[in-house]
Amino acid sequence: MDSRNGKITIVLVVLCVLLGGGYLAYAALGPNQTTTDARPQAGAAPTGVAVMVRAVDPTKPTLNGRVFVVEDGKVRRRSSDLACERVYYAAGRGICMGVAPSGVDYTAKVFDSNFQTVNTIDLTGLPSRARVSSDGHYGAMTVFVAGDSYLGNSTAFSTRTTILDMADGKQIGQLEQYKVTKDGKPFDAVDFNFWGVTFAKDPNRFYATLATGDHHYLVEGDIAAESMRVLRDGVECPSLSPDNRQIAYKSRIGTENRWRIHVLDVKTLNDHPVAENRSIDDQVEWLDNETLAYSDGTNVYTVPADGSGEAQLLVKDATSPVRLGR
Amino acid sequence: MYQVEASKALLKPRLWAGRAARLRVPRNVVMLGMVSLLTDVSSEMVATVLPLYLVFSLGASPLVFGAIDGTYGGAAALVQVASGFVSDRWRRPKGVAGLGYGLSAIGKVALVGAGNTIGGIGAIIAVDRVGKGIRTAPRDALISLSSAKDRLATSFGVHRAMDSVGAMLGPLVAFGILFVAPARFDAVFVVSTLFAVLGLAVLILNVDGRPQRLRRAERDEAAPDDDKAAPSFRAALGLVTAPRFAPVLLAAGLLSVASVSDAMIYVGLQRNLDFDPAVFPLLYVMTAIVFMGLAIPFGQLADRIGKVPVLLGGQALLFVTYGVLMMGSVGYGALVLCLLALGGYFAATEGVLTALAGTVLPEKLQASGIGLLITVTSLGRLASSLAFGGLWFAIGLQSAVICFVAALALAMMLAAPLLLRAQRASLDG
Fold first, then answer.
1. Most A CBs within 10 Å: which of B205, B284, B386, as the mutation test of the A interface?
2. Pairing of strands A227-232, A205-212
């Protein structure tokens, strides 16, 4: 090729370096986004209900992911530097899964009632679900482990779910290593993935999702025995009601990544949908034995668990609802 | 003043040209390598941050991304055959490749502008995959047509090594940007767009679209006007039974079906060694580094001692990998050995196979043939993954690997005479 084209190329390289460098400098050093304490705003909340949520505002790095306590429609408290992608809390102990200070890794922080970090745990993937048993003894975390490839183009995701001792932040179990039984027989496959733990009143017992092939099984587990048994199919991200009689969960619509919230009876395993008719990808929280709270990714809503009524805004610009004051 | 600046600016291309001259690799191949390097930096940057972006900015689950990505894999295979044929038919490999690179660049621009809905991102990924499907066959045809037949494997080695440098740099650049400007995905997309545009510019400005071998072939056939016509669809389809190319196609299909994908191997290693899954990306990086280091020497070796021995030797390296998988609980030494063998296998097979196809294909059907070859091997790999996954599920990892050891041995025994016949034919021709 002639030297004229070579010169044009060099000019283009210089131009791109200047443009890219300039934009990056602007992004890194540009006008700092200011903090507003007004958000998240509470909607029509039932009186006496206190919830913890994480704020959603991707345009404000100083607000996004901060943990707020909202009670009777007002913001009571907020964390100053604790920023999370997923948060859960019970009996004085919370889990906050978020981006590490490096900006490229993820960590989970175990925090106390003053939003002070007690322990920090390195995560092996993208935060997905977090739960703490109602006595604050155990915690459970699910992360997505990416298998992206340089040479191939496989982008298969798998999940990892660990059980924590909330007192010292130590990992005490990994669901992938628990024994599983189905219809009384041992059950194992290469493609087992677990997610969405929910703890029972007896914190040694829990429920979770086991995915294999096209199936999403509801499993009931025992931490001390390191075992789980399959209860039924078609249940993702189970959430046990405070009285332990019902489970709210995501019910997949066909084979797509779209879900409706359903509630099942623990004794009969029969289920019914709730009045929320949009697709929801969240692990539902129970405000009391009759009311569910969940997020659509932007706001937190409530809906009656028995299928009646309609969805109502609980907190604007928030996700990860956690019922407080048990 | 002007002189100083100009000589500084020219220093880098000169260094590359110097290396290339020592390897006796045509400038056009180095430029195509540069195009791939820049484009790979661009797409790997986006691929690295897209799961984070989907989850944290759009509130989607990464599973959505997996579904989006997987859906278009099949469509890409069909696009490859079609784009290869169109590039031969129009006699414009550079134009068709440019269309593919252009589509991907447009996709990056769209990410900056409209990448804030899941549907929008799905469409953008689709455009990117189609772009990749379109450009691969005509680009490989250009590499092949730019090189002398006895230097073809070295040329492909240089191109593949540069390509993987880009794939390694992409995630580093993306993480670097997020480190400097946390959560500013827009900055990642803007820089990615600039890399894609630069790649396209290098293609348009510095790659010769009518390389030597193509021009000579056109001159030779200028006399009998019967042959002068652009290749027909029937001629392209005829490649499937062409006496020189069909054996290569068949052998490639056989070998790909008997080769376990790298992703499956990593999962198997993880099961055996029970290491932290956070180490997964490190396995890819280590394999890619081995690949990068060996692609050029293995290419040179293939040009010196013949492509078929290197190809079969590379395939045989997979036995080492299978052996480590079969041993069950092994140490970290075995893990390193396994990754060395896997990187060596990639370096000795993919580029060398394309080079072999380049020597046996007629000049005017290069892109069609290479498109067919890529499609056959990717379908073979898909079948292999399904079979290996099914066997693992049914009879366990060790038994599944034993099945694949037998399958690979059989495939190599069948493929060796086919490949040798093709290589002999290419020497005669």
1. B205
2. unpaired
